[in-house]
């Protein structure tokens, strides 16, 4: 607790609390007292009370308020009974218990008598209003700071608080003007040490060249900028040489940012720096600018069969495959109907073609599943189209089966983590923390059995349990063989940028990020006051919202979606050539079909020898397409003799007739 913290204790017995443990605390604690326990009148009455009731007071030097309130309650009850008897009221009493709702027969009369009575003893004048609520004449406000208790005000219903001492004075001594000049950062250049830790401090990497403080961006960079504007100081941001937050070595020397501040090479350490008792022994912290805890990050676990089925390809790949089937269906269906070799007589007056939209789609889908097909190509164009589709299917299916096999082999024996305790039930996944950070120190110093076992597991893994940076830890987690404990704000940021990781279990512990300054820094209180102001005006919340929820956030699919990619998922860029091959094959077959169709239509027009305008090729193409979509078969008048692809006339196939 720092000097900027103030607490109001609602208990009326705070004066009975032993304050020896609060001698070094700089926070200010206020409490109200109903009785003036320091007055000579109260002490005299308390002495008489102790003589009359030694069993109630022998174990306490101070008289608890509830004890004297109970005594005064009996006193006011006796006063009310005395008034009733003096007035000649017949007080009819009956037996009542605490186990039922039976009320006292003369209860209302007794209550009215209590409201009209008054009594003065240990807690002052005891009187009640019309609603039966006690009216309090006055209460004392006491202040406790650094083990020293002082009466600072008296409260009355009429005047409220009447201060008898300065409530903002720490020790009652006039401080004068000493230290005013040194207590401010105004017009000074402050050396700020930090480490790169997205999204708190990020080195800009957009291809441009930056110098000085412009090299950095992030939450902490914006925070120190806001503080400098409020307190009118300049600052210079420097990255700490060893890239560590700060831990104490066996020789007693501090590393990282804490070492920079302790040794005087930096005025402030601004980063996601956790407040710990060990660090507080060598530096001072402002009030926390963000709450934090410890969470477990692990590779995302997709346990459903549907997830596994769709994981070999990206969502874009699945879309391209579906579009390819639809486009191929339309083109091959049109090619089959434009080619004369696929027409057959179904009666003396009507011909039919197996290349309908439904049949063609089912044929292409069966080919992709390596199933038996009913359609048989009879022309060069359909043979080329079918061959192109088969090659496309072989490449797609082999790629899918290869990736699916990798997923099954890799994850079939992978343990499932639902909580932190599950780490202790397996030996395949290593786990650890950031080296020389507060998270490592938390597990190292913890006396809680679960955390002690986790620390012992980290020690068994040796150096493999710890990583030098969050980036290396994220990379190991995404490979699936490592789980990392990290502070909850960083974990939240990582989850919003990497779709392949997730948070396991609940948050452990509770602490806060704060700015560190050297011991005895007189400007610390001003910094804390400015941080508190930024909290209350919503600035810190807006900064957090921007850097966690808006800036470079990945578009991760929700957990309920049936598709989620894995590190093995095939993306379009790896198989784009096979889609290009399919498109070129279909274009070639379409060109062959159109050329032959145009030759055939021209010969028919020349052979007709009529002077009427011939039907255009486009009208015929549209008619064929319309017939394919509506499954309409042409009549004998609409048919024509099929021609081979070299232009010669062929006899159409005749359906065999049944013997008479």
UniProtKB/TrEMBL annotation:
Q: Where do Polar residues bias regions lie?
A: 650-660
Return the Gene3D superfamilies for the record. 1.10.287.70, 3.40.50.2300, Periplasmic binding protein-like II
Question: Where does the source fall among the domains of life?
Answer: Eukaryota
InterPro entries named in the record: ANF_lig-bd_rcpt (IPR001828), Glu/Gly-bd (IPR019594), Iono_Glu_rcpt_met (IPR001508), Ionotropic_Glu_rcpt (IPR015683), Iontro_rcpt_C (IPR001320), Peripla_BP_I (IPR028082)
CC terms in the record's Gene Ontology section: postsynaptic membrane
Q: Which SMART domains match?
A: Lig_chan-Glu_bd, PBPe
Q: Where is the Ionotropic glutamate receptor L-glutamate and glycine-binding domain?
A: 199-263
Where is the Ionotropic glutamate receptor C-terminal domain positioned along the sequence?
189-550
Site location (Crucial to convey clamshell closure to channel opening)? 417
Protein's name according to its UniProt entry? Ionotropic glutamate receptor
Q: Provide the species name.
A: Ornithodoros erraticus (European soft tick)
């Amino acid at each position: 607790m720092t000097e900027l913290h103030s607490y109001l204790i609602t208990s009326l017995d705070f004066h009975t609390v032993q304050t020896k443990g609060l001698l070094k605390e700089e926070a200010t604690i206020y409490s109200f007292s109903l009785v003036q326990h320091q007055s000579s009148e109260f002490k005299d009455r308390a002495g008489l009370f102790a003589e009359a009731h030694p069993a109630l007071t022998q174990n306490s030097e101070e008289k608890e308020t509830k004890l004297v309130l109970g005594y005064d309650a009996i006193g006011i009850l006796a006063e009310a009974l005395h008034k009733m008897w003096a007035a000649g009221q017949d007080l009819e009493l009956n037996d009542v218990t605490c186990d039922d709702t039976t009320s006292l027969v003369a209860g209302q009369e007794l209550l009215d008598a209590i409201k009209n009575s008054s009594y003065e003893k240990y807690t002052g004048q005891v009187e009640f209003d019309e609603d039966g609520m006690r009216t309090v004449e006055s209460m004392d406000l006491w202040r406790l700071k650094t083990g020293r208790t002082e009466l600072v005000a008296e409260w009355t219903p009429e005047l409220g608080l009447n201060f008898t001492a300065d409530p903002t004075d720490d020790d009652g001594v006039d401080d004068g003007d000493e230290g005013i000049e040194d207590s401010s950062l105004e017009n000074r250049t402050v050396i700020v040490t930090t480490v790169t830790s997205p999204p708190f401090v990020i080195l800009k990497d957009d291809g441009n060249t930056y110098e000085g403080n412009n090299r950095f961006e992030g939450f902490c960079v914006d925070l120190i900028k806001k503080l400098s504007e409020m307190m009118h100081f300049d600052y210079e941001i420097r990255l700490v040489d060893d890239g560590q937050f700060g831990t104490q070595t066996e020789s007693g020397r501090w590393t990282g940012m804490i070492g920079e501040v302790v040794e005087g090479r930096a005025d402030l350490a601004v980063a996601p720096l956790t407040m710990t008792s060990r660090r507080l022994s060598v530096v001072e912290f402002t009030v926390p600018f963000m709450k934090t805890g410890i969470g477990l990050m692990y590779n995302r676990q997709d346990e459903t069969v549907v997830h596994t089925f769709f994981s070999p390809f990206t969502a874009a790949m699945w879309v391209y495959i579906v579009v390819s089937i639809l486009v191929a269906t339309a083109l091959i269906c049109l090619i089959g109907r434009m080619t004369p070799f696929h027409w057959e007589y179904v009666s003396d007056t009507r011909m039919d073609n197996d290349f309908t939209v439904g049949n063609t789609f089912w044929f292409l889908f069966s080919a992709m599943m390596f199933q038996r097909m009913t359609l048989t190509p009879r022309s060069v164009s359909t043979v080329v189209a079918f061959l192109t589709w088969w090659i496309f299917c072989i490449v797609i299916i082999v790629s899918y089966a290869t990736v699916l096999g990798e997923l099954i082999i890799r994850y079939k024996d992978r343990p499932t983590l639902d909580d932190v305790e599950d780490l202790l039930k397996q030996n395949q996944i290593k786990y650890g923390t950031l080296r020389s950070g507060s998270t490592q120190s938390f597990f190292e110093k913890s006396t809680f059995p679960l955390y002690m076992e986790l620390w012992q597991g980290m020690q068994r893994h040796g150096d493999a349990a710890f990583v030098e940076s969050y980036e290396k830890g994220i990379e190991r987690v995404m490979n699936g063989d490592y789980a990392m404990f990290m502070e909850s704000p960083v974990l939240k940021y990582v989850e919003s940028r990497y779709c392949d990781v997730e948070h396991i279990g609940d948050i452990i512990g509770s602490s806060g990020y704060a700015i560190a300054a050297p011991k005895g820094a007189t400007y610390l209180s001003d910094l804390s006051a400015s941080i508190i102001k930024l909290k209350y005006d919503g600035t810190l919340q807006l900064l957090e919202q921007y850097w966690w929820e808006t800036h470079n956030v990945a578009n991760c699919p929700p957990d309920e979606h049936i598709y989620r990619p894995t590190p093995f998922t095939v993306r379009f860029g790896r198989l784009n050539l096979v889609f290009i091959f399919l498109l070129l094959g279909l274009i070639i077959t379409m060109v062959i079909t159109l050329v032959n169709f145009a030759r055939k239509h021209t010969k028919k027009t020349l052979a007709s020898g009529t002077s009427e305008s011939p039907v255009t090729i486009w009208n015929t193409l549209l008619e064929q397409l319309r017939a394919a979509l509506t499954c309409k078969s042409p009549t004998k008048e609409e048919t024509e003799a099929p021609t081979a692809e070299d232009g010669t006339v062929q006899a159409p196939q005749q359906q065999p007739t049944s013997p008479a």
